[in-house]
Structure formats: structure tokens, C-alpha cells
Amino acid sequence: MSENADRQGRLIRLILSCFRCVPTRLRTRIFVSLFLAFYHLSPRRRLIAIHNLKRAFPEKSMAEIVLIAKGSYRNMAIVAAEFFDIPWLTKDRVRESVEVEGFEHCVEALKKKRGLLMIASHFGNWELQAIAFSLLFQPLLFLYRPLDNLFLDRLVTSVRSSTGNRPLAKEKAMRQMLRTIKANGIVGLLIDQNWSLQEGVFVDFFGRPACTSDGLARLALHTAAPVIPAFMVRQESGKYRLVIREAVELVNTGEQEKDVMINTQNFTRIIEEMIRKYPDQWFWVHQRWKTQSPHRTEKA
User: Fold this and answer.
1) Please, what sign has the CA dihedral across residues 107, 109, 113, 115?
2) What is the Cα–Cα distance from 283 to 67, expressed in whole angstroms?
3) How far is C-alpha 142 from the chain's CA centre?
4) pLDDT tens readout for residues 143-198
5) What is the C-alpha separation between 230 and 159, in angstroms, rounded?
6) Which residues of 158-187 are buried (b: 16+ CB within 10 A; e: fewer)?
7) Between 130 and 7, where is the model more confident?
8) What are the structural domain ranges in the chain?
9) How far apart are CA 46 and CA 7, in angstroms?
10) Contact 159, 83 (CB under 8 A)
11) What's the whole-model pTM score?
12) Of 30, 159, 164, 206, which sits 20 to 30 A from 256 (CA to CA)?
């Protein structure tokens, strides 16, 4: 390890320890206050969230939209506050705060010896979701987009991998994903973010075409690995319910591009259904519909 890397490692441990010294409840209150202040002080992000919500829920009043938008900021604050507890989590501690529903679906899927593909999204506490899987079931390989700041990226990655999970940057990740599936491992993919025209396909998401990663559908069709949706739902008590749904029936007619489109739509619809139940637990500040279809652009 280089001297610089060693120095960064010590600094990361110091930062995590400092945050850890602040009790979780107090830390959460501080983070919620800061994020709500940012909601008021950053009109651009606030308007993105309100615009997205208004388009997604045209039947709701502006008062309801604002309430959900603030709830989304509150959710992000809680995810950030609880993030610093992750390196100290154990199986017993997770069991105290997380109720698991549908655990048997993972067991049945892995019995097929074809690996498991997990549909994930920026919903509820997605960071805790990956950690809970690693401690209660088995570690997983998951794709992520590296942060622009190298130090912050290393800090976040060190926390995410602290319980055995393997974060993998999406560039040139296919070979490692295939190896994991072949070894009957679990691969998690976040598929609720905006993608470029070259990387995704357009499917319906809240009544609007959204450019969505087609990687999960292509991987599932290539490997025949079961695809299972999972969501970490925050309950009113502050505890969580890890909802693991049964494997999604894959459409495989042999027409690859058509099958990729249909399956990506089916995966996206499942995410939308969960967001509609708990709209304040999704990441509305993200520009999910930023990439526009060239057909829409030409028409406009």
C-alpha cells in the first residue's frame, strides 16, 4: 500500500469514528435539519423534485406534492445519517431493526445453481439493503457509478464493502458479473437512474418514456439467472422491512431486442409500483427523465 493510500485509509477511519461518536438519533436529527435547509436553499434541486412529482402524480394537490418532496429529502437525510453505522453492524444488530419478508424466494432461486440477479433501486434505505443481504444471507456483487471525488469514492466504497459486499464500477463489469453468476452468487443492479442513449432503452416510467439500463435484462436472458426484486421499506417506527419478492417471470421469445425491451419494462413497472405505495421514500431529486428519445426531439 502506498504512503498516500495508507494516509487516506487512516483519515477515512477517523472520519467514520467521529461520526460514530454522535448517537444515531441525534445524528439523524442533524442530517434531517441540514437536508431540509438544503431543500429551501437550493431552488434548482427542489424544483426538479417538485416537477418530477407533479408529472408523476398529476392528481395530487401542490400541498401533497410539496409534502412528498420534503419527505424525499428527509429519506435521503436518514440514509446518509445511518450510513456511518454500517461498518459496525452485525447480523444480530440487523435483525433487531430489519424484518425480512420473502427470504424463501432467495433460497429457492439459488437452489437452481444459476446465480441470482437482484433488482435494486434508490428506494428506502438502499445502502442498508445491500448490507442486510450480506449479513443475513450472503455477500453480493453490485454495480455502482464511481463518485467524481476520488477520496469520497474510496470512503463510500470502504463502507459498502465493510461486510463482505463487492462494489464494482460499471465500466467493464460484465466479465466479473458473469463469473459471480456462474459461481451461484448474487449480483445487484440499480436500474432506476437515467442512462444515456447509447447505454439504455426507453420504457414507460410514471407515464413518461425514461431511458433505462438494459443490462439487467440482457444478463438475465444470457444466463437464465432468476431475477428477484428487493426493497428496504422504512416503517413509521423507524425500523425497516426488507421486502423480497418472488422471481420475475422472464420473457424469452428468441427475439433479443424485443425481449430486452419487454423485460426492462416489466422490471421498471415493479419499481414504480413500490414507489407509488411509498412515494416519499424514492430519490425524486434525480433527473430521471433527462435523456430524451431522438424521436421526441425530432417531433418537438
Assistant:
1) negative
2) 14
3) 10
4) 888 888 889 999 999 999 999 999 988 777 888 999 999 999 999 999 999 999 88
5) 21
6) bbbeebebbbbebeebeeebbebbeebbbb
7) 130
8) 3-299
9) 37
10) yes
11) 0.93
12) 206
